[in-house]
Structure prediction request, 311 residues.
Amino acid sequence: MSARVLVLGGAGFLGSHLTESLLQHGHAVRVFDRANADLRNIRGLKGDLVFHGGDFANAHDLEDALRGVSQIYHLVSTTIPSSSNENPVYDVETNLVPTVRLLDLACKSGARRVVFLSSGGTVYGKPNTLPIPEDHPTRPMVSYGVVKVAIENYLRLFHHLHGLEYAILRLSNPYGPRQDPAGAQGAAAVFLGRALKNERISIWGDGSVVRDYIHVKDAVAGILAAGLATTPAQTLNIGSGQGTSLNELVQAIRTASGRELPVDYTPGRPFDVPANVLDIARAKASLGWEPKIPLAQGLKETWDWLESRRV
Prediction:
């Protein structure tokens, strides 16, 4: 049994899958999430699991959560890309400031490594080239991405000043079982949820916007590989490496669900870049990792999971 690791946001969609996989690999895991978090995603997981409820912005809560921890997986975010520009001060106060405090406390507590889930979909902005490599300029068009880039730079600073090891993972759009179909983000889950209810969907723009969708199991495999890596500092794209337009996603969901899924098109949003597909060559070479689940298979698996939950 290895030393205890901390998963910030471990009760959520992505965090619960990561927690489950860490437990399966023999890690002792402490999940930190809101005190009132819905724990259905982690209830019943087998292994050495401890839940710590608290406030990410509270230094005392973080100090308690960090005790005896060797490695931190940081998945917490209080904002989403589509609404972060409405209140950038809140974004900074609840994400950037607490994360800098976390890094400071991590160094004092003796934690060795931080694996930070950044945003491959927002940090690059409008791409110069596709697929997008990690050395592409970072020109985010939403506060969410600006804060992610700032956190990335603070990780580099703490590595320089204190030797704190890190992995920055610029994740594309994860989807799969446990993602909330009634949530405010995650086109695949939202569209599947609408299909389940035989409802229409709305798409911003004409449906030509292209995104990179990665199954949550593939994403978690990449996150775990980065956590185990011996490289003291690295920045990696984690995605499928394949682009799918919203119109293509809708058609794939029609096939997976067997439903019509009618579409309403609405005016596009100014912050939506026309295409975002990640170059994952560096992650493949550095981690020996690559995604394995095709979109059609992953959507069918997610559809079956949603149907199994229907009362």
About this structure: Residues 88-109 form the longest helix (22 residues).
